[in-house]
Amino acid sequence: MAQRVLEQMKSLEATRTAGGNGPRAPAGNGGGSGWSREEAAPAATVRVGLWFLLTAVTMLFIAFTVAYAARRTAPDWAPIALPPILWVNTGLLGASSATLEWARRRGRRGDAAGVRGGLTVTTLFGAAFLVGQIAAWRELAAAGVFMATSPHSAFFHLLTAVHGLHLLGGLGALGYALRRTAAPAPAGPVLGGEDLTSAVLGSVAIYWHFLTVLWLYVFFIIWS
Amino acid sequence: MAHVAHAEAQAGHELSFWRKYIFSQDHKVIGIQYALTSMFMAVLGGLLAMFIRLQLGWPGQSWPLLGRLFPSGMPDGQMNQAFYLASVTMHGTIMIFFVLTTLLTGGFGNFLIPLMIGARDMAFPFLNMLSYWLYPPAIIILLASFFVSGGAAGGGWTAYPPLSALPGAAPGSGLGQTLWLISLALLILAFLFGSLNYITTILQLRARGLSMMRLPLTIWGLFVTAILSLLAFPVLLAAAIMLLFDRIGGTSFFVPAGLLIGSVPVDHRGGNPLLWQHLFWFLGHPEVYVLILPPMGMISDILANNARKPIFGYRFMVGSIVAIAFLSFLVWGHHMYTSGMAPVLGTAFMTTTLVIAVPSAIKTFNWLATLWRAKIRFTSAMLFALGFLSLFVTGGLTGIVLAQPPVDIYFQDTFFVVAHFHFVMASAAIFASFAGTYYWFPKMFGRMMNERLGKWHFWLTFVGIYATFFPMHYAGFMGMMRRIYSPQIYAHLQGLQPLNVFVSIAAFVLFAAQFIFLYNFFRSLFRGPQAERNPWRATTLEWEAPSPPPHLNWGETLPTVQRWAYDYSPPDMAEDFQPQAAPAAVPTGRSREGRGDGGHAR
To answer: How far does B601 lie from chain A, in Å, by closest CA?
Structure first.
């Protein structure tokens, strides 16, 4: 999903070269910083779309939360023992956010190899998180706790599965960013002095950090 | 990819047939794809309505010819119960999600947004293509459910559990219901991708000079609708996922304990079926406005254009669209008055519901004021726009009746409700779609539709709608329930049989009249007279582009907007309209330029 959004940057670049879309730049972006309104729009447009995407995902999890809160009040509610590996997974995902930030910092200094290294480590951490989540399911299954065993385990499986699907999209976005940064970067700033690499990284980072925070939230409500 | 597509167009190369018409990223092609697919689904949805009326008009009657066509649904020509309930469910599902939502936002939204804001395309053309291409798979899955064991879902378009959660609950509760949920989930993704695009495009890609308060109301309607969809559809998606878990994974989100199916106790326990209703209607009510806000916008533009007058109270029109959208999130409980909710909660929902009448009335009176003392051009588009006004008022008034819990408890699930929403939501939205089609057809296809056929179509449809749905108020008043297979077994409904026959005949005429439209549409596509650039002498930007607009819409230069969208009959000018993009006229002291900008014009 996030990857799809990012795919659009290509076409927006093309639109720009095709004569520009006459976009409206935010007030005060007019001049002085050495980039024109036409060049500013694509990355900014991706950001706007991204924030609305996050709004939709937030609404999805708000709906789950409401259902969870309502279901917990039923008399048959009985908490299950959650596998401790979830703490490891949380650490992995937190670390992935940290390495992504590190990659961005390398990008700002023009260190292309550092960016690729950082992105690769981030992707590996992210994938490890997903493997860890599956391990958590298997651990539960080994203990005889399945999706339909109790309402708590149903919500645990539901929330981790939906979060995991969104994280898969995030891995796709990281892969896209890796591909983008591997190619020779087109010269020239596109967003408030940022070059294309950091514009792509910035959008990917927003989505990825959102997923990290979303996991902390899911972990919190499912544990408490 | 998009990059290649644009680059090729830039270099003057022809795109391949597949890129140009099938997997196109051009918003105009995608809009037309959405519109044509929706038309196909509308025929299907209408056909299902005919089945419903066949059964209600002549219950138990045998139709040998139909029996041969539908051997499982109508064995020996006699419609069975499962087929009837599936028809009712699928008619609602198809018309609401697969026709009106897709046509208004996917069809008109896609085609009009970039053109009316002076952009070359949507912000994310690839995502736009993806949005459309989730739609046909959703259709195939939905229609396939007619042919699986047990037939299509029969639990109503609202899919209340436990009927929708337990595969053994009813014939249609089997695989048909699972396919229904999967199909809907796909379509929700399509809506979400579309909405992301519409919002971002309107916020980011407006032409120079086109401030938000200079936007045509069509765009305002589509913009606020996209925000509504983005906030409401994820909630339905969440509910659908949970219902799928209940059905496939054996969880108990919605299924309570102690249920017996065929005197066998079910394994589920502890779930809450009302939770589904809350989640469903938290989407469901905003969804009603997803179907009515774009029509409100389109109607405003068509009325102003044909009245040759500025829209009355532009800023209030924008404000009331936003107010209706906001309030629509606070009224879902009025669908659940009979669910045992606390009376004080019912009163709260009644209050928020009645408050919606205020912005709705503001819009209605502003439309009337726009028409006041106008020299109206009665084009087909205008007739349908006026018809929309009539239907919206008729249906809106019964909305006030139903908003009140004591009254609603009597009317719950009767034909009074069916009459209400078929007027205010279904027919009104369909009328706006017809108005929009007659109005924008020249821009879409570069040809004019036949006005004479358009007028025949209007009068037959207008009279047909009233003849079909108005008597339903009375049937509901007399206690006739909706989704009822055999009304004749109830003594108190037997007297209504002549009325039901009348309604059925009216419905058949109404359905038949739509073939005038289809004939007109497809004939005009090939034989209609060539349309000029601006046949309706309209002010908005889409009429600056050639008919039909080329790929990327505009030539070398993009339009620059000088004024608001409603400069009709400006004083001291030879023409009775001044396009948004026309260079500023010499100031004459009494110019209306900038009116409605609210001081935001730059």
So the answer is: 14
Picking from A21, A49, A60, the nearest residue to B124 by CB comes out as A49
Decide if B341 touches A, using CB distance below 8 A.
no
Provide the pLDDT confidence category of residue A28 given band limits of 50, 70 and 90.
very low
Of the candidates B378, B213, B201, B348, the one whose C-alpha atom is nearest the C-alpha of residue A49 is B201
B14 located within any domain? no
Is B306 found in the same domain as B193?
Answer: no
Q: What domain count does chain B have? A: 3
In a domain, B165, yes or no: yes
CA distances from B298 to B218, B318, B433, B468, B562 (A): 5, 13, 9, 25, 21
- B586, two tokens: 């010499």
Same domain for B304 and B378: yes
Tell whether B433 and B578 lie within a shared domain: no
Start-to-end C-alpha separation, chain B: 37
Among the partner-chain residues B6, B206, B234, the one whose CB lies closest to the CB of A60 is: B234
Q: Does residue B524 sit in the same domain as residue B538?
A: no
Contact B230 A15 (CB under 8 A): no
Nearest chain B Cα to A48, which residue?
B200
For residues B511 and B537, membership in a common domain is answered with: no
Neighboring chain B residues of A56 at a CB cutoff of 8 Å: 192, 195-196, 230-231, 233-234
Tens-place pLDDT, residues B301-314: 999 999 999 999 99
Residues of chain B contacting residue A63, judged by C-beta atoms under 8 Å apart: 234-235, 237-239, 279, 282
End position of a domain, from candidates B471, B501, B528: B528
The answer on B501 and B537 residing in a single domain is no
Q: Which of B477, B507, B528 is the last residue of a domain?
A: B528
Question: Above 80 in pLDDT, residue B367?
Answer: yes
Whether chain A has a CB inside 8 Å of the CB on B123: the answer is: yes
Beta bridge partners of B260: B265
Of A45, A48, A147, the CB nearest to B249: A147
Nearest to B126 among A11, A21, A154 (CB): A11
Q: For position B488, what pLDDT does the model report? A: 87
Using CB atoms, pick whichever of A14, A48, A66 lies closest to residue B204.
A48
Measure the CA–CA gap between B586 and B584, rounded to whole angstroms.
7
**pTM for the full predicted model:** 0.91
Q: Which pair of structure tokens corresponds to residue B393?
A: 């008022």
Domains and CATH numbers, chain A: 2-17+38-186+194-223 (1.20.120.80)
Same domain, B55 and B180: yes
User: Does B114 reach chain A within 8 Å, measured CB to CB?
Assistant: no
Query: In CATH, what number is assigned to the domain containing residue B97?
Result: 1.20.210.10
Residue B329 lies in a domain: yes
CB distance A41 to B205 below 8 Å:
yes
Asked if residue B247 has pLDDT above 80, the reply is yes
Interchain CB distance below 8 Å, B204 and A17: no
- Whether residues B470 and B590 share a domain: the answer is no
Mean pLDDT of all residues belonging to chain B: 92
Rounded Cα–Cα distance for residues B65 and A105 (Å): 74
Which uninterrupted H or E stretch holds B56?
helix B27-57
> Rounded to whole angstroms, how far apart are CA atoms B581 and B588?
19
Least reliable range by pLDDT among A26-40, B162-176, B383-397: A26-40
pLDDT of residue A11: 47
- B593 Cα distance to chain centroid: 34
Where in the sequence is the domain holding B446, given as residue range(s)? 292-528
pLDDT digits (tens, 9 = 90+) for A72-102: 888 888 899 999 999 999 999 999 999 999 9
| A75 vs B contacts (CB less than 8 Å) | 270
